[in-house]
Amino acid sequence: MLRDRSGRVLLARRPAGTHQGGLWEFPGGKVEPGESPVRALGRELQEELGIHLLRHRPLIRITHAYPDRRVLLDVHLVDRWEGNPRGLEGQPLTWVAPERLADHPMPAADAPIVDAIRLPDRCLVTPPDLHDPARLLDGLQRSLQHGIRLVQLRLPGLESGAYRALARRAAALCHAHDARLLLNAPAEWVGPCGADGVHLNAGRLRACRERPLPTGMWVGASCHDAAELRLAEAIDADFALLSPVQPTASHPHARPLGWERFSALVEQASLPVYALGGVTPEQMETAWLHGAQGIAAIRGLWMGWPYPAANRAE
Description:
This protein is α/β, with parallel strands linked by helices. The protein has nine helices and 13 strands. It has helices at residues 37-49, 111-118, 133-145, 160-176, 190-193, 202-207, 226-234, 258-268, 284-289, and strands at residues 9-13, 24-25, 52-65, 70-82, 93-96, 122-125, 150-153, 180-183, 197-200, 218-223, 239-242, 273-276, 294-297. An eight-stranded parallel barrel has the order 6-7-8-9-10-11-12-13. The chain has a three-stranded antiparallel sheet with strand order 2-1-5, with no helix packed on it. It starts with 8 loop residues before the first strand and ends in a 17-residue tail after the last strand. The model is unreliable at 310-314 (pLDDT under 50).
């Protein structure tokens, strides 16, 4: 998947008469026998678009079952190349802003890829015991100024009226920085608070029987094992946080998954998954290599009190 400096992504239209013909897709192709995915990526970009691959990273792997076939999509984000992309096989091309991808009909298997493109690589979870509005909003402001664009407002134990009042202020602050706010709270609070979606804790996830918000609003879910990831997929969640990857101060007695187990669970999932628990921005490359969308964190991403900005440990 090619992304240019302005953030647009390149789409190609499938030929009529082929599987999923007439729909738009991300350029690519099949891995030949004995060929590595990376080598296949470079070859396909050369053959289809006439460009030379310079830099890429894993984005997401998706397995999808159509009525007549099953496909595995190993998607890489390409942000540096040589040459000018052109349809060497006669396929129409177009550059599209991520928020306009819904205007281009695409195969069903590509839906999680669209989510992965639109989601940032960092998800901030607010400190759970920080109920003081002034301090929370100050820390949120600092974090947004450092580039955070996805925030989960998690304040367990805060009285509902106080939570909603604080959520309205946090949503306005996030929107001023072109960021999105998800409420770790009942889904019916999202609209009145002006938030962008809901994040389901494990209890709310298990109680869900269908997607709690319409398409166009974000739905995230906290997961700890394969069964919870399947539940998140069943309700059509947009992404999941999978934890704990490593030992964490907030859950000292929880058994960490480790990167290999995390990777194995993500391999089975069909939605973007963030690594949560003991992870820091310095481990972003490690997270990507193990299939993560990116990292989610409290201490590792929060820039205000009570965690000094220099303290990057989760």
